[in-house]
Amino acid sequence: MKFADLIIKRFDDDVPEIALPAGISELRQSGHGFAHLMADAIEAMITNNVAADERPHVDAIEARRTELEASEDEISYTDFGSATRDESQSMEEMYEGVDRSRSVGHLCRRTSKPYRSALLLHKIIRSAGTKNGLELGTCLGISGSYEAAAMELNGNGRMITMEGAAPVAALAQQTFDRLGHGRVEIVVGRFQDTLTGTVAEQGPFDYAFIDGHHDGRATIDYYNIILPHLTDGAIVVYDDIRWSNGMLDAWNALKVHESVEVSVDLEDVGICWVCKDPKPAEHFVIE
């Protein structure tokens, strides 16, 4: 099984043992502490290494996912992200948004982070000891719950998660309330309207997960807005970096940004270690 196929597997899927990608050894051979952290987190994700204190949280989150996926309730909302992969929409059209109506189950299956991808975020936060996290793209609260659970187990930290669609944010709040994740606060509104004020008021952040909009131009803009409000040694995670040519172009530009000291390419996800005075950058590909 290829690494890219593994990370989209469900919580309850039977997964055969696979050899660890060679890129993990390369991470461990680096002298950078963040590279070692990433090697541990990726290996834990691949081997499904869930610690005893993490298991109750994982089981509860996945039970909530199952509940959402089974829901046939209709939800109507305005989607302010990129509606196409060819990036033919203008920024004005994306700002106006597209009205959608679908079942909650369909929305959850289509947009919530798969189990192992969410587990990776959890492991990163647990290892990094994240104090103040930012998430762009709350959706139904699955990834945010994995992030918040890591903070609860660490005994500190809080998440600010941002969602453009109010009806979707309401369901995410139900997820956080049901699971007892009091460390999460949802900001509702278009990122274009809310991001600048949110990071200025709630920062600095030592972790950011950019998972929304899925437009290359917007992704670069969001990073430039967030960057002044990141701590030295912050971790920035980009989702769906190969969703479109524009998103891949954005990742290729962001991973070599002057603020980045380490980048890790996981095919679907890109992760950067950001610092104020970076040394010569190291770039890793896990495939």
SS field, number of helical segments? 12
The first-level CATH class name: Alpha Beta
Side-by-side strand order of the widest sheet? 5-4-3-6-7-9-8-10
Per DSSP E runs of 2 or more residues, the count of β-strands stands at: 10
Shape: globular
What is the domain total for the residues? Answer: 1
CATH architecture descriptor name? 3-Layer(aba) Sandwich
Tell me about the largest β-sheet.
Answer: 8 strands, mixed
Average pLDDT across residues?
Answer: 92
Predict the CATH topology. Answer: Rossmann fold
- Give the ordered list of helices and strands: HHHHEHEHHEHEHEHEHEHEEE
Key structural traits:
alpha/beta, about 45% helix, about 290 residues, Rossmann fold, about 20% strand, single chain, two-stranded antiparallel sheet
Describe this structure in words.
- Helix content is 46%, strand content 21%.
- It has twelve helices and ten strands.
- It has a single domain, classed as 3-Layer(aba) Sandwich (Rossmann fold).
- The chain is α/β, with parallel strands linked by helices and 287 residues long.
- An eight-stranded mixed beta sheet has the order 5-4-3-6-7-9-8-10, with helices on both faces. A two-stranded antiparallel ribbon has the order 1-2.
- The relative contact order is 0.15.
Layout of secondary structure:
Elements: H1 3-6, H2 22-29, H3 33-47, H4 55-70, E1 74-79, H5 91-96, E2 98-103, H6 104-111, H7 115-128, E3 132-136, H8 142-154, E4 158-163, H9 166-179, E5 184-188, H10 191-202, E6 205-210, H11 216-226, E7 230-239, H12 245-254, E8 260-265, E9 269-274, E10 282-285
